[in-house]
Amino acid sequence: MGQPTDTVKYILPEDKIPAAWYNIQADLPAPVPPVLHPGTGQPITPADLAPLFPAAIIEQEVSQERWIEIPSPVRSIYRQWRPAPLYRARRLEKALDTPAKIYYKYEGVSPAGSHKPNTAVPQAYYSAIEGVKRLTTETGAGQWGSSLAFAGALFNLEIHVYMVKVSYQQKPYRRALMEAYGARVVASPSGETNAGREILKQHPDSTGSLGIAISEAVEIAAQDDSTKYALGSVLNHVLLHQTVIGLESLAQLELAGDYPDIIIGCTGGGSNFAGIAFPFMGAQLRGETPPVRFVAVEPAACPTLTKGKYAYDYGDTAHLTPLVKMHTLGSSFVPQGIHAGGLRYHGMAPLLSHIVELGLIEPRAHTQLDCFAAGVAFARTEGIMPAPEANHAVKAAIDEALRCKEEGTSKTVLFNLCGHGHFDMQAYIDYQAGKLRDTEYSAEEVAMALAGLPAVG
Amino acid sequence: MGQPTDTVKYILPEDKIPAAWYNIQADLPAPVPPVLHPGTGQPITPADLAPLFPAAIIEQEVSQERWIEIPSPVRSIYRQWRPAPLYRARRLEKALDTPAKIYYKYEGVSPAGSHKPNTAVPQAYYSAIEGVKRLTTETGAGQWGSSLAFAGALFNLEIHVYMVKVSYQQKPYRRALMEAYGARVVASPSGETNAGREILKQHPDSTGSLGIAISEAVEIAAQDDSTKYALGSVLNHVLLHQTVIGLESLAQLELAGDYPDIIIGCTGGGSNFAGIAFPFMGAQLRGETPPVRFVAVEPAACPTLTKGKYAYDYGDTAHLTPLVKMHTLGSSFVPQGIHAGGLRYHGMAPLLSHIVELGLIEPRAHTQLDCFAAGVAFARTEGIMPAPEANHAVKAAIDEALRCKEEGTSKTVLFNLCGHGHFDMQAYIDYQAGKLRDTEYSAEEVAMALAGLPAVG
C-alpha cells in the first residue's frame, strides 16, 4: 500500500536561536587576501566603504573575532521562523533505496521563502539605527530582493531593487512580492543610471546580470548620504549572518545523535553554502570534530569555481566596486538565462574562494536539467518544492546517496534546502514542457571571458 | 528608528500533535438534518456512498463519536509541518494602534502551503489501505488539488484533478505544482465527461465552478471500482480532519495564557473555518468555557451564508450528488471569477450551515478589494503574504481590532491564516495594477439563482 517511511523533523526551542554569528576568519590557517582600492591598488580602509555601508556592517566585514553577538531585536525577528527545521529525508532515502542518511536544513520557512532574510534583517536593522532612509540593492531570481523588501517594511526603510532583466521577465511573482512589501523594483540594466545606460548603449537586448545590477545599485547609493547599499551575498558580513543555519544544524544533528560526513550547498555568491558549512568547518579547523567533505555545487551555465580563475576582479560590471580576490569568470561575463537566477554571478565570495584554495571544499557543477529532475524527485517524496537554486544541492545529495548504495557504505549527508520554489513554478512549467536547455561553456569561451581581468595582485 | 514590536510564535512539541480528531456532532443540541437520496427523497445509507468513498471515510462521515483516533501513519506525516505555529501579531497590533490582541494560526507551513493536506493525507491513507488505485477530485484555486497531489505522491495513488477553468487560467503555478507532484490536471468544464460536455454545449465560454468540477470528478469515480472520489471541503469527515487546527490552537493559547473572545475564519466550503472553530465551540457547548463570537467570512461575490437560502440542494451542478441541507445559492449558480477561487462554491458544509441556523456563528461578507487591502497591510507588518482566501479572515480580524480601538476595549481575536499566497501573486499583481473589480449580487439576481432549487425537504 506504499505507506511512507516517515520524514523526521528535528526542532529546537526558541532559546536555541544562536546568540552570536560565527566568523570563520578567526579559525583559518591563512588570512584572506586584502580587498584592494581600484585606483591605488592598495588595501582599502573602512573609511573607503563608508559611503556604501552602515558603520556596524563595515566593522563586521573586517572583524577577526570568532563570535559576533546577534542584536536582540534581530533575534526577536528571527524568532518568527527560526530555529528553522532540520529534516531527515527518510522518504527520499527509501525511494533511492540507499543506506545513506540524508538530512536537510529547510530555510524556506521564512516569510520570504528563503535563507536571505537571515542577513536582510540585520542589514536593515543596522541601517535603521544609523539613520539610513533608503537601501538600494540588486537581485537575481528575487530571493534577495524580496527578503530585503520584507526587512525594509519592518524598519520603515525605502527599498529600491535593481532586478536582473531576465528574472524580472521570468519571475513576475517575485517582483509582485517585493512590490507588495512596498519596494520599488526596476529591471536592470535600466535607463536610471550611467552604468545601466552604458550597457544598454552597447547591448540594447541585454538580459542583465548580477554584476550589472550591482553597478546600478552602488551608483545610486553613492550619490546620497541617507542612502546605503545592501548586498545579499559575496561579502564577509553576509556569510557571517548566514551562519545561523549551520549553528542550528549542529545542535539539531546533536539531537538526532548524528554527525555529517558530507555537507552540501549550492553556490551563487556563496552565502547559503557558507551558512551551513562554516560552523562545521570551524569545529574541524579547531580539531574538535572529524573531517567532513564540503561540496559546493554551482550551475554548469555559470561555472565560477570549476572553470573560473582565482584572481583579483571587480564585483560588478561597471567597475564601481573595490577589487577582490575570488574565483571569477570576469566581470563582463553574462551567464545564460537559466532559471536558477540566484546563481548567475560571475564571481564568488572572496572568503569562500580563499577556503576553496586552502583545499577544504570540493566544487562541482551540474546542468539545470539534471537539477530539475532531482528537484521533482525530491518533491514527490519529501513534498517540498525546492527553489531552482536549491535543486543543485538536492542533485548532489542524491548523487552522494546513490554512490553510498553502489559502494555499500552508509554516509551521513547534510544539505541546505535554502528556499522553496513556490515563486519559481514557471521554471517547473518550462522544465515539464521540455523547454529548458542545458549549456556548458567551452575552454575557449571561458578564456575569452577571462581575458579582460584587471592586471592586479 | 522603527524597531518593530515583535511577532511572538507559540510552538508545541511534536507529541502535542492531536491524537484524535474532534467531532462536534457529539456535542450539538440538535442533530444535522439527514442527507437525502435524490431519487427516493429518503435518507441515504452508507451503502449508497460506497461507490464514491473508502469505507473508513464513510464511517467517519456518519459517526457521532466525539473523538476519532488519528491513525499513526497520518500523524507521522502531519509531523513534517505540525504542530503548525500560532503567532501573536504584535507588529500588526502596533500598526493598527489597537488594544486588541490578535493571534493567528498559520497553516501555510505545510508542503502544499495551506491547511488542505490535513485532510488530503488521511483521505489518501484510507484509500491506499483499502486498495484504491486512483482518486478523482475537483479544485478551485488549486490549494486542494495540490494537497491531494502531494498526498497521492506519498501513497502511490494516481490523482486526477478537475480544476475550475478560471483558476486553471489565472493560476498556472498551482497547476504546475500538481503536475510536479505527478497529478493529471484538466480544466473544467472538460470534454471528458457527460457533465462537462453538457455544460460546454449550453455555455461554451463557461469559466467553470466548483459545482461543475465536482460533477466531473464524481462521474469518473463512479465508473470504476478502483477509483474513488475525494472532496476537499463541505463533508463532515473533511471538517473533522481539519479540527487539528483548533485543537492545536487551544493548547497554544494555553501556553500564551490567553483565550479568544472572537474566532474568525474564511468560508468557501467551510472546512478551514470549522477546523479552527469547532474545538472551541465544543468546549463552549459542553459548558467548559465562556462564550466566543465565531465569525465566518465569505466573499461578497459568493454570498452563500449571507444571501443564500437554507434548503436541500445538490452539491454539484449536474446533480450527481445526494441532496444536502445547506445554505446555497443554487447548484446552477456560477460565481464571478474572483481571485479567492477556493471560496467560489454555491453551497456550504451542511454541518456548518446547521450550526449557523443554531445561532452559534455570525456570517459576514467582504468584497475582494477590501480583502486585498487587508492582506497587503498584513504582509507589510507580519511579513507573511496571505492567500486571497485567507485575506477574508485578515480583513475581519483587522475590523474587529479597529472596533476595539474605537470602543476602547481589549478583545482577544484569533483567526486562521489558512494558507500563503505565494502561488497567487498574479492576484496581487492585478490588485496593485487596479485591475480587480468588486461585485455584489442584487436581491433579484439571488432570487433568480435560487428559483431552481429542488422541491425537497
Describe the overall structure.
- 2 copies of one chain form a homodimer.
- Chain A is an alpha/beta fold and 457 residues long.
- Chain A is 41% helix and 16% strand.
- Chain A has a 7-stranded mixed β-sheet, with helices on both faces.
- In chain A, a hairpin with an 8-residue loop joins strand 12 and strand 13.
- In chain A, helix 2 packs across helix 11.
- The longest helix of chain A is centred in the middle third of the chain and has 21 residues.
- The radius of gyration of chain A is 20 Å and the shape is globular.
- The termini of chain A are far apart.
- The interface between A and B is large, with 55 and 56 residues.
Q: Reading side by side through the largest sheet of chain A, how are the strands ordered?
A: 1-4-5-15-10-11-14
Number of DSSP helical runs of chain A = 18
Poorly predicted regions of chain A: none
Q: Per the principal axes of the C-alpha atoms, what is the gross shape of chain A?
A: globular
Structural class of chain A comes to alpha/beta
Q: Report the strand count of chain A.
A: 15
Could you tell me which chain pair has the largest interface and how many residues each side has? A-B, 55 and 56 residues
Backbone CA Rg of chain A: 20 Å
What is the multimeric organization of the chains shown? homodimer
Largest sheet of chain A: 7 strands, mixed
Helix content of chain A: 40-55%
Query: Roughly how many Å apart are the termini of chain A?
Result: 63 Å
Tell me, rounded to a whole number, the average pLDDT of chain A: 94
Estimated share of beta-strand residues of chain A? 15-25%
